[in-house]
Hints:
By secondary structure, this protein is α+β, with helices and mostly antiparallel strands. The chain contains six helices and five strands; from the N terminus they run ααββααβαβαβ. The chain has two domains: 22-190, Helix Hairpins (Orthogonal Bundle); 211-342, CATH 3.30.1330.60. The protein has helices at 2-106, 111-207, 224-227, 237-256, 285-302, 327-333; strands at 213-216, 219-223, 263-270, 310-314, 335-342. The chain has a five-stranded mixed beta sheet. The model has no long low-confidence stretch (mean pLDDT 80).
Amino acid sequence: MALARNRRNQRMVDYWPGFVDALSTLLLSIMFLLTVFVLAQFLLSREISGKDEVLTRLNNQINELTQALALEKNGKQDLEDSLAALQSSLSDSEKERSRLQQLLDSGNGGAAAATARIGTLTESLDAEKKISTRALSQVELLNQQIAALRSQIAAVEQALQAAEAKDQASRTKIADLGHRLNIALAQRVQELNRYRSDFFGRLREILSDRDNIRIVGDRFVFQSEVLFPSGGDVLNPQGETEMAKLAEAVKELDREIPPEINWVLRVDGHTDNVPLSGTGKFKDNWELSSARATSVVKYLIAQGVPPARLAAAGFGEFQPIASGDTDEVRAANRRIELKLTEK
């Protein structure tokens, strides 16, 4: 038997350093990937935010230019209408002048009146020609302004299209980066789960090979009967023996894991669904489960485990791992769970 224990100790010594190194490297890699992802998200978010502001300003400029163009078109239409009216009036005046000139040439009398009328119409015609000339100048100026506005709108639209294309490229880049980081993190998590399973398998070898000490998911589960008497929160001798073994493993783990990794061993207490009478030491299953978890933590501290690496929680009967009201189901739900996790 002594020879078997020595062989078991040799296997433990050979196993732990490699496992701890692999676990440390994995955790550091995950932290590095998370840091890179957060930094990339921050930089790309700032770049996209700046581009959104530029797009908003460009859209505002386009709206202002469009409104100005509409006003200029309305003014141009008004001037064109005025010009058409003046040209029509000018044509009527020329016709009237021709008619009066014919009357004057035919000698039908009223030459003086006709001459005066012709003079008046001539002056009116000259004035209308000047007005028409000014109107034409204004129309030409408006045409030049409209052409300039169209050039500005075209330039703004080109800038807007370029900004939209760059923004789309940035979004595509962010999506690709997030996809690749998610794949890498998923691979790391799978490796971490594999190492955690190996760790719990080794921990089971250290504690004992018993049916009522098992691994469920990512937790190491002790049935309450192994550690505590019925309805009590004080560790029995067998429970102290098992917890002493656990304390040695946790202390060795604390020495091996780098201090920058902020890990904690969480002790969760659970009970069955049979209510307490309320007349004893504990009023309900909440108090009993919390007291048992605290008792385990205090014992581990007494064995030299750093308090900062331990946490206790009680869940009463509200997180069962089996359903039903049989004695076997209730026994399975009365348990203490250990989970190695990060703070």
